[in-house]
Structures are given as structure tokens and as C-alpha cells.
Specification:
single chain, mainly beta, Immunoglobulin-like, Maltoporin, Chain A, four-stranded antiparallel β-sheet
Length: 728
């Protein structure tokens, strides 16, 4: 007879490197009990009867089957690396499903540019409208999230979103990431995740970079518009060393762009990473990165200026727009394994950031003589840490994983400016000149209770903010301060019917903070607006090579106060409701053929406005991305991609329309053992499309009064780039 607390324990490792494997699926065949390996590769399962069979699988490795002949066994399981296959994806826990699917996506449809990083997230769209150096505009689940206000974005745990930024709340510039170093993309839609705090309303995205590179690499690319890009990734330690890894990477990017005012876009990145397994219980990881970028921008031009042939769609009204920015990141991670059931992780980070942007959205509406060009400046240091404790408990017929964490982040904003300038060089007026500190203290606790086919994941999060603001233009010259607190409960429930079907329901609250200038003006009232949402969905795998995930969702956003960094003003935006449907499909009918399709519908509305006057400007309604990829054994591969965004309202009464688009990209490659030749063609059919669009009241030099119109940045025309990569 098997004891009631009998367990099967073990570790899963990569056979070739000896590294622990996280998110491997472990299933007892007879009882259908299942679990996943943790970050240190460990796992444990309740076992009711022996003998039984342990099935261990991972999306990147060959499946292994092990006979369990007695209780309380401990296994060391080495998995042999294989090609990534959709058939290896296991439907057992949605928490890990997205990660498995993303691994297949990244292998079959690799990242080719910094813009591809965010485009890899199903349902997420981006738009660039300032010469390539400015952070992209982000769209997700019926949100025009500006540059990240409603999407929590991080890289290796380092937060990317900038609260109280000179240009926009939650500004998220990912250009410091070298795409070739990204190994995984972890994402979740909605606000159902206890370890995600500020800006997690529509969802979150975390990019994870490689811990180890098997080979050094050099890549050189050149293409249209005098584009050149070079990348190098260099392994620093012998391949035989399995307990330590170290590498450095660098990237240089330049393009003149398709615009009449040459972008002269420059970006330089450096990145280094080191990790070491000090002993069986201690692990450290250290990384540093720095980047610098400068550019010119054509800006957003009025449709009427092109229609009247005042300028072409590649022209500009103000040729002096553009900017420069830089960011340096440092981080240190420490993991301590207390015993088989308990571990502790600590993470410390620091960022030094600078931003200087010149824009002109209204041209001559405010100053008919000098024009309306503005200069936004942001200089800050960011300090923070996160600590996490995890413990496993084993009960009769169930097990529990308890996780609690605490965190701290302080943004020390040395310089926060909005200036009215003339052609970059002449200061006409200072609208804002301030310094500020914004501190976020947080803690959370959650449990994952697994019993039979059910998994329950309740959690609660507490965030406390301390805002301090010093206005250099105020005659009082004193610091003003406010504090605010937010409690966010969440609950996720999963039911795994069998190896082909899982149902889930998620509910929870999220929030995003408001700009410190709004917080002070509002005396701290209602400055952490809540989102409340629900997801109901399924993960379905009817065939070994077919994966389908439909979801119905609803999200309400509380009254908030929006600060316009371009105007230096703020106003209430009102309550909103978004209802939608997401559908993801992945199909690999043959080992060399992969098809992916994502469709996303949303109905976003203001809830306190009359029908017909309640459209949310620029909020996406229907989007779809996908493609077909072929990788032949001969080394030839082809990847045809599409992205589609439907027409959407540009203002509250839908009298102006932001035009939709359908754009295709094609990547061809020929790969041999140590080198690869690739050809990229963006906007394959050279369609005319608008990438960024805004309702804007602007005035041209020859006009007598301002006019409300669509201002836009044209999407890239047909663009050709070729490159060669060498591994050594």
C-alpha cells in the first residue's frame, strides 16, 4: 500500500550543458497527476499507486519516459536537446502554456528587428512616429496605451516603464535591447498576476535574454535608405564550463530613412552578462547594458497638407524635430535554495536615463510667428529591488506552492522640463521646470493549490506610492508631497480535463499610476485608477501539431486623470469599458511547416457618455497578425508575415477615422553549419499606409485659423535588407 504522502521528486537538466530546466512538464501516466519543474529544475508529485510511468517533456527537448517502481524516489533527469516542435507543448497549466508557445514562435519565426520584440506578443500592435528613436506607441486589448501606460514592460526583471515621464506616463523605450540576445518572451493579458504592479491593466510583457551562448556570432546587414546594422555576440568562457557563463554583445544601427528630412538615425548598444552556480544552493547573475541614440524626425503631418500638395507624404512641416536618448542598466540576481521545498530570490537594479525630444504637433496654432515646437527633457536615476520567497507544501491528494514577495522602486527625477523652443536652438518659454521623486513600495502573496484536475491561484497585492514634487518655476519654491495606496486582489482557476483540453477563468484588479504633476494637483485623490477584469478561455490541443486558445474578456477602467506631456495640462478622461474576444491558433502539420494566426476583437467605450459620443479615440477594434513559415532540411527557410488593423475612431463621435492597414513582410534565409545569409523585405507589396494617426488641432503657416484634422506618420514603403551571419 502506498503511503498517503508518498512523493516522486527530482530535477530536470539539459543533458548537454548540465543546466537546470524550468517549465519542463512532468506527468504520472496512470493517475494523470502533473506538475512543472521550477527555476532550479526541481519538481515533486504525489503518487497514489506503483508502479507508474513518469513522462517528462519540454518544448525544446526529446520526451523521456521513466518507470516509477517505488515511492519517495528522487530522479535526476537529463533531457536531450531536439528541434522545437509544437507537438511537445503540453496542455496542463496556462501559466506555462504561453511560454511554451512563444518558444515555438521564436524558433519558427525569429526576431529580426527591435520592433519585432513587441510584435511577437499576440494581439499587441505598435506604431513609430518620431524618426525611429522614440519609444513605440503600443496598442493592446482595446487600449491605445500611448507609449506603455497600460502595459507593464520589463527586460530580465528590470522595469522599462517610466512613471511621470516628460513625454507620457509609463513611457517604455525598448531600444536598449539587442534582439539577438532575447531567448524568451513572457506575457499575460489582463491584470491577473500578483508579481506585476504598476501599469499592468491591459497586460504585461517581460523579455528574457540568453544566459548562455553556445557560439560567438557576427552579423552584418545593409539595405534601403542607406541602412546599415552590425551585431556581435561573443562567448567569454570555454564551452566545457557548465557552472559559469559569460558573454558580451554589441549593436550599431544607422539609417537615413525614407523621409525627405533624413532621419540620420544612430543607435549604439552594449550588453554583458555573467552567471554562476556557486554551489548546489547558491546562484548569482550579473548584467550591465548601455545604449545611446539620436535621430531626426519628420513628425506627424496633416492629411490636408498632403492633399493640397503643400508637402508630400514623406515631407515635413517642421524639419527640426528629433532628439536623443540614453540608458544604462545594472542588475544583480541572487538565488538561495534553502532545501528541496524552499528557496529565496533577491534582485537589485539600477538605471541611469536621459531623454531630450523636439516635437511640433500644432505647428503655428499657438505661436503664428515662431511656431509651436516643444522640447521635453527627462533625466533620472532609478533604484530598486525585489525579493521573493517560495515554499512547497504536500497535503493529502493535493499540493500547494506559496509565494510571497516584496519590492521597492524609486525614480529620482533630476530634471523634468517642457519648453517652447524655436528650431531646437532658441528657448522661447519654460512651461515646466521641476524635479521629483516617486517611490513605490509593494508586497504580494499568492498560492497555487493543485488538487486533481483543478488548480486554484488566489493572490493579493499591496502598492504604496510616495510622490514628491519641486516646481522650480513656482515662486514658493517648496517641495509638495502626496501618498496613495492600492490593494489589488486576483483569482485564477484552471481545470485540466485531459491532455488535450484545459479551461480557465481569471479575475482581478490592476492599476496604473498617474503623473506626479497630476497627483499634486489632485491632492492625491483617485490617482491610482483601478482596472477590473475577467477572462474566460480554453487551451485546446485536438491534434499533436495543433493548438487553439480562444478567450472572452471584459475590462472596466476607473476614472483617471490624464496628463499631456506635450501640453503640460491634465484633464479627466472618464470611465471606460472594453469587451472582447481573442483567438490564437498554431498549426505545425509538418516538421518544417508552421502556421500562426492571432485575431483580436475589442469594443472600447466610455461608460459615462451618450451613445455615439462615447468612442475611445484611437482604441483598436479588430487586429490580426500571423504568417506561414517553412524551414527545410536543406537550410532554406521562408517566413511570410502579415499584420492587419481595422479602421477605428479617431475622436469621441467618430467623425474622424484612423485608417486601417494590411501589411506583409517576407524573410528568406539560407543556413549552413556556421553561417547564414538572409534577405528581409518589409511592406512586400509597397502598400500606402498610415503607421501613427492622431486627431490634432493644428495650423499651417498659410492658414488663418486652426483646423481639426488627422495628423499622421506614413508607414514604411517597400524596404529591402540583406545580411550575413557567421558563428564561430
Amino acid at each position: 500500500m502506498v503511503p498517503s504522502h508518498a512523493q516522486v521528486k527530482g530535477f530536470v537538466k539539459d543533458e548537454s550543458t548540465g543546466k537546470p530546466l524550468e517549465n519542463a512538464s512532468i506527468v504520472l501516466r496512470n493517475s494523470d497527476e502533473h506538475t512543472h519543474s521550477l527555476a532550479d529544475g526541481s519538481f515533486s508529485l504525489q503518487i497514489d499507486n506503483v508502479p507508474d510511468t513518469l513522462v517528462v517533456s519540454h518544448v525544446e527537448f526529446e520526451q523521456k519516459i521513466i518507470v516509477v517502481s517505488n515511492t519517495d524516489q528522487k530522479f535526476i533527469i537529463d533531457l536531450e536537446r531536439s528541434g522545437i516542435k509544437l507537438s511537445n507543448v503540453v496542455v496542463s497549466n496556462s501559466k506555462f502554456l504561453t511560454g511554451q508557445i512563444m518558444k515555438v514562435d521564436l524558433k519558427m519565426t525569429p526576431i529580426n528587428s527591435a520592433q519585432d520584440l513587441l510584435r511577437k506578443v499576440p494581439g499587441l500592435f505598435i506604431a513609430q512616429h518620431a524618426g525611429g528613436g522614440k519609444a513605440e506607441q503600443v496598442f493592446l486589448r482595446g487600449f491605445d496605451a500611448d507609449h506603455g501606460t497600460d502595459v507593464n514592460i520589463s527586460v530580465d526583471g528590470i522595469p522599462v516603464n517610466m512613471p511621470s515621464h516628460a513625454h507620457g506616463q509609463g513611457y517604455s523605450d525598448l531600444h536598449f535591447v539587442i534582439p539577438e540576445t532575447v531567448k524568451d518572451i513572457d506575457f499575460g493579458k489582463g491584470a491577473y498576476y500578483a508579481d506585476k504592479g504598476d501599469f499592468n491593466t491591459a497586460g504585461y510583457v517581460n523579455f528574457a535574454t540568453l544566459d548562455r551562448v553556445d557560439n560567438s556570432m557576427l552579423k552584418l546587414e545593409a539595405g534601403s535608405f542607406n541602412t546599415i546594422r552590425t551585431v556581435g555576440v561573443f562567448n567569454l568562457l570555454p564551452k566545457e564550463m557548465t557552472t559559469q557563463n559569460a558573454y558580451v554583445a554589441g549593436e550599431y544601427n544607422f539609417t537615413k530613412g525614407p523621409f525627405e528630412v533624413k532621419q540620420n538615425f544612430n543607435r549604439f548598444n552594449l550588453f554583458a552578462k555573467y552567471d554562476a552556480q556557486l554551489n548546489a544552493n547558491n546562484y548569482i547573475k550579473f548584467q550591465v547594458s548601455t545604449f545611446n541614440s539620436n535621430w531626426n524626425a519628420s513628425g506627424q503631418i496633416p492629411e490636408r497638407a498632403v492633399a493640397q500638395e503643400i508637402i508630400s507624404q514623406w515631407g515635413s512641416i517642421d524639419p527640426t524635430e528629433g532628439g536623443n536618448t540614453s540608458r544604462t542598466n545594472l542588475s544583480l540576481q541572487y538565488k538561495y535554495k534553502i532545501d528541496d521545498d524552499k528557496d529565496w530570490q533577491s534582485f537589485f537594479f539600477y538605471s541611469k536615463y536621459a531623454f531630450n525630444l523636439y516635437s511640433n504637433f500644432t505647428f503655428y496654432a499657438k505661436d503664428p510667428v515662431n511656431g509651436d515646437e516643444i522640447n521635453q527633457i527627462d533625466n533620472r536615476n532609478i533604484y530598486g529591488y525585489n525579493h521573493k520567497y517560495t515554499q512547497k507544501f504536500f497535503l493529502n491528494n493535493s499540493d500547494i506552492v506559496w509565494e510571497s514577495g516584496t519590492g521597492f522602486r524609486m525614480d529620482d527625477i533630476k530634471n523634468l522640463q517642457l519648453n517652447h523652443v524655436y528650431r531646437r536652438n532658441t528657448l522661447l518659454d519654460q512651461i515646466t521646470d521641476a524635479s521629483a521623486t516617486e517611490t513605490n513600495l509593494n508586497l504580494y502573496t499568492q498560492v497555487e493549490w493543485h488538487s486533481g484536475k483543478w488548480l486554484f491561484n488566489p493572490s493579493i497585492r499591496l502598492d504604496h506610492f510616495i510622490f514628491n514634487y519641486f516646481d522650480r518655476l513656482s515662486p514658493l519654491g517648496s517641495t509638495q508631497g502626496q501618498q496613495a495606496t492600492k490593494i489589488s486582489p486576483k483569482l485564477n482557476v484552471f481545470y485540466t480535463a485531459n491532455s488535450k483540453l484545459q479551461l480557465y477563468a481569471k479575475a482581478g484588479q490592476g492599476f496604473h499610476s498617474n503623473d506626479v504633476r497630476v497627483v499634486i494637483a489632485q491632492s492625491g485623490y483617485n490617482v491610482l485608477p483601478s482596472s477590473i477584469g475577467v477572462d474566460i478561455g480554453a487551451a485546446i490541443k485536438p491534434l499533436s501539431g495543433l493548438y487553439i486558445q480562444p478567450a472572452l474578456w471584459w475590462l472596466d477602467l476607473q476614472q483617471e486623470f490624464v496628463f499631456s506631456g506635450d501640453e503640460g495640462t491634465w484633464e479627466p478622461s472618464g470611465k471606460t469599458r472594453r469587451i472582447g474576444i481573442d483567438l490564437s491558433l498554431r498549426y505545425q502539420p509538418l516538421k518544417w511547416l508552421y502556421i500562426d494566426i492571432d485575431g483580436n476583437y475589442a469594443k472600447p467605450r466610455f461608460t459615462n457618455e451618450a451613445a455615439g459620443q462615447n468612442y475611445i479615440p484611437l482604441a483598436p477594434t479588430f487586429t490580426s497578425t500571423g504568417g506561414i513559415s517553412a524551414k527545410l532540411s536543406s537550410g532554406i527557410s521562408a517566413n511570410l508575415r502579415y499584420r492587419y488593423m481595422a479602421d477605428r475612431p479617431a475622436n469621441e463621435d467618430y467623425t474622424l477615422t484612423a485608417k486601417g492597414y494590411f501589411v506583409n513582410d517576407l524573410v528568406l534565409a539560407y543556413t549552413k553549419k556556421n553561417w547564414e545569409l538572409n534577405i528581409q523585405m518589409q511592406n512586400l507589396f509597397n502598400v500606402k499606409w498610415y503607421e501613427a494617426q492622431f486627431e490634432t488641432v493644428s495650423k499651417l503657416k498659410n492658414e488663418t485659423a486652426p483646423i481639426n484634422d488627422i495628423n499622421f506618420t506614413p508607414g514604411t514603403p517597400f524596404y529591402f535588407k540583406t545580411g550575413i551571419k557567421v558563428n564561430f
